[in-house]
């Protein structure tokens, strides 16, 4: 059950980060969105890696959980700088995933 809650949050974060990165590419001033695109992609990759490892029920994942929490925090902070709806939605998903990582560690 513990893995399932985190896996759900990770999946939601992956989806929002990928959507946000793609939507940023369609923005008029895409150069302003470069950092957002980079961190979106990094966050989606970190979440995907953790999700895949959790699905195996491997126990020694705390280091990756901590890393994922930090990447989600960084992504949320970057997305919160932008006023687009996709960035707002992504920031929210990242914050929820960050909290799920914290709860997993507790």
From TrEMBL:
It comes from the Bacteria. Gene3D superfamilies: 1.20.1270.360. Pfam families: Csp. PANTHER family: CYTOPLASMIC PROTEIN, CYTOPLASMIC PROTEIN-RELATED. This is Four-helix bundle copper-binding protein. InterPro entries: Csp_YhjQ, YHJQ-like. It comes from Gillisia hiemivivida.
């Amino acid at each position: 059950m513990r893995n399932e809650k985190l896996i759900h949050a990770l999946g939601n974060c992956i989806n929002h980060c990928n959507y946000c990165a793609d939507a940023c590419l369609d923005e008029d001033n895409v150069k302003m969105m470069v950092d957002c695109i980079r961190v979106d992609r990094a966050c989606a990759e970190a979440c995907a890696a953790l999700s895949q490892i959790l699905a195996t029920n491997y126990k020694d994942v705390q280091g990756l959980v901590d890393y994922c929490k930090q990447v989600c925090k960084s992504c949320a902070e970057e997305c919160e700088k932008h006023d687009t709806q996709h960035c707002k939605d992504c920031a929210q998903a990242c914050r929820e995933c960050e909290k799920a990582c914290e709860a997993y560690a507790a």
